[in-house]
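[Automated response] Your request has been received and processed.

Submitted sequence:
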Amino acid sequence: MTEREEDVVISSDQFTDTGAEASVAGKSRNGIQRFALTHPRLSLWIVFVLALGLWGSWAGPGWNPQPMRSLIVPEASDTSITTSIDTADVGTYAVESTVVTITLRDGTDIPATLRAPIGFDGLAPGMLFIHGTGTSSYRSFTEEATDIASAGIVTLVPEKRTDDYTATHRDYEELALDFEDAFEYLVNQAGVDPHRSGLYGVSEGCFIAPIVATARDDVSLVVLVSAPVLPIREQGALAADTYLRNLGVPDRLLQAIPRLIGQDFGSGTFDYIDFDVSTYQRQMTMPILMLYGTGDMSMPTIQGPLILRDDLAEAGNTDLTLRYYDGADHGLKVDKVLDRNAMQDIADWVNDLPFTADASPRVAGAQPNQSYVASTPGRPHWFASGTTAIAILAIGLIATVITIPLSALSFVRRKGRRPFDLRGCGGQLNIASLGVLLSVVVAAGYVMAVAELALSYQQNKIVVQGGWLIAEIVALLAAWLVVRFAFKCWREYRRCRESDEGRMSRAASAIQIFAILGQVTLLLAVAYWGFFPSIM
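Generated structure:
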């Protein structure tokens, strides 16, 4: 056989195989076509569900956090601060507590609690407490401020003004002015050493403390407890991811993180969640003590200290001491009991400065764990962000809800006539609308239930897994009801055109169109949050 003949044979075989494949493909297409013709509603429902799933994957930013590769390995498990002298133990001194009044620069008077060690000889260091998100009262930090004061340190807890502090608006620079005035009050108290006084910031207060520290030359030390370091948008996304993974939620629910936290409501609303404290940290030259609990899943316990270290390096500052407390939560509590070792460590560190500023071990305590790197979440498309998303959802709800009582009028006869005739579609309209509304309620209820479990550190597989399954089933059922209603409308429309009954009234047609638009809009919203299966 010649080479050319071999080529021909090979080409012929290939041709034969291709024809067989085409035949199989043709049979497959024919089978799909027969199924679609035999089961049109079911076919359309499948296509509709897949389209909703694809929409849910495409419409919002994805979420794929990268694993944390960096590690912080404590040099010792004992958190005790190495000192050059014998420092006072917590409880050494009785504490005198006095409620005082501080006049701020704008003339406003605020209350504050001043605690001083009774019988302390000489000038004592001073420490101003700066509130986080959960506290604002001068009565806050009773345990922490009393313990530290009993070790020979004067503490001051001022009231945090909240008249311009809301969920949507916070001005950290403006808040810092009040704490600057409070610090001025503290260092001017008799018995307080103005050269050995500083700040105790907690959580959100760790954004304010660096501002105060760089504004005043006499801030000689800073204690940061459970510091976010990262902008709240990034830290919040990390916290949500950690909480949800700890609960064992389906992966599709994780995609809701950037879609919620990445929202943009316009200038002046939620601007504070993008506040970057690094601008001020890069100017801090005083010793800093940083403390975390390993049971705190909301903070970047590895990434935060690394960022702070790099920020301080720009100011030539290497005086950073880091402590991790085994099992302690955001408030350095274990089973709601304050970790007294942490208070002792703070007191020792303050009382023996400047020796303790760089004393070994610089990093000690339990091993911290941060599984993923916190990063800025993607921003949703315009139609899914801010007030636009709320407006679209509201339109969908109104269009769906308002057509229910309107369609009910089609069943009412007055003087033998109906206000308008939906030609038998009214019942299915109501069922479809109620099904869609139920899917929205179930999806929202599931998200709230999961959030409650996550924030309270509880586990409940029945709620997490079972609730997700129920929400999916209700969403799929709602999609089926909408398809069923749309089919009914289309068949009635065709029947009216082919018979002598005449066309449906404009009012009846408008109600049907509004109902379908509202229902589809709400289903798109449910799909956006991941409650429909996706092939992507």
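Summary generated for your ticket: The chain has 15 helices and eleven strands. Residues 136 and 161 are 7 Å apart (CA to CA).
If you did not submit this request, please reply to this message.
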